[in-house]
Amino acid sequence: MLRTLLAFTLAIQPVVAADLPDLGEVSRQYFSDQEEQAMGRAIMRDVYADPRYLDDPEIESYLNQLGYKLVSVSTRNQREFTFFVVDDPSINAFAMPGGNIGVHTGLLLAAQSESELASVVAHEISHVTQDHIARMVAAQSQSYWPTMAALALALLAARSNPNVASAAIASSQAYSIQSQLNYSRDYEREADRLGYDMLTRAGFDPRGMSGFFNRLQRASRFYDSSAPAYLRTHPLTSDRISDMEARSDAAPYHQVEDSLDFQLVRARLRARQDSPQDAVVAARNTLKEKRYSSETAARYGLVSALLRTRQFREAEAELQKLPSGKSGSPMIQQLAAQTALAAGNQALALQRYQSGSSTYPGYRPLQYGYIGALLSARRSNDALAQLDRQLSLYPLDRRLWRFAAQAHAQLGHRLLSHRAQAEAAALSGNLMAAIEQITLGIKAGDGSFYEMSAAEARRREWQALEKAQRKE
Ligand SMILES: [Zn+2]
Fold this sequence. Notes:
Strand content: under 5%
Structural class: mainly alpha
Helix content: 55-70%
Bound molecules: zinc ion
Radius of gyration: 23 Å
């Protein structure tokens, strides 16, 4: 598949539309849907293996919710998107092939409103829906060729050798390639315009866009060395800023309030910065001096920091002051359960997870927590029942499959445990590991006739897919 990408690089001439910057609806001329999906998963495999990937279901869930709120109002071609968080203090966000959009923690913390964050995410979504990356690859064949080839080789090497180290190398290359993807001015203007449409349709404040970019530009000019990463890849011109301002000036003014979850995510990120003691002091001061836009979020941040210093009694006391149930947020329910669990009160944790997941049945981080707690309590059958329901809703969730592997292992189901591990590996883009795991499961020989033939069919499917990827 990646060789196909390289072949395209040589074969396709730059596509120049006469009516730039409105490049119009893009036909899927560069990659097939399948190719793009396979490339997207291969990229995510490297992202997941990278130490900078922030494996925090709550923050990731928030970002995906925000992203899909924007995608759902996009008028351009719809596809699968994956939004993920990179633990990096620089202000940056980027789109990669396959609809993968990364947002740095630095950007989440620097945004002064949810509309500002949404404006950057909407801009990145537009780069994806307009196939700008593929177009750039096609257009820059000469200068771009060596780095693209290096990326392809690194990804292929990582795929044929399923160890984390080589995947991490590939991903650092993928990031460095990404940092060299400088969008043209026309692409920038198109992404601005479509991003703006999404932003207003989804009910965000369109002034967020010019506000954020203005600040970013000032910051990079005067003092902040963390800003240029984004500006280098998304060249910001005074034309762009005045276009954004003209658009938002024409829009009727309406105040848009930030969601509670936006505030909670930022408080959560702040609470994990610095040493545990410093984080507690900072959170206490924020609350005492009322330097917050949401008291609930400030208190949520304090509880998160207190968990790091293992001050459970004070954490519990602060939790009691937070809104619970429907008037709060699933993130608060989750924190309450985590606090009980960390303090060693398993029964209370289970009770909180259960009530949280019935109040917010669609919130998966609570399900992960609940299932994890059931497994630690060795209530394997209850965990499995919960997992079956969740997997029937979200069969592509690699975290659920990992829990399923654990539950089956606890129950001594060897085939089913390996099968679940295999599914998790395949969903993380690691077909070699998937084939290895399912082979171990088949060899274990403890499945029913039906389970055995299902596993064999699955193995054949993955083998064919893996072979096809290697061939291309
Ligand atoms: Zn851009």
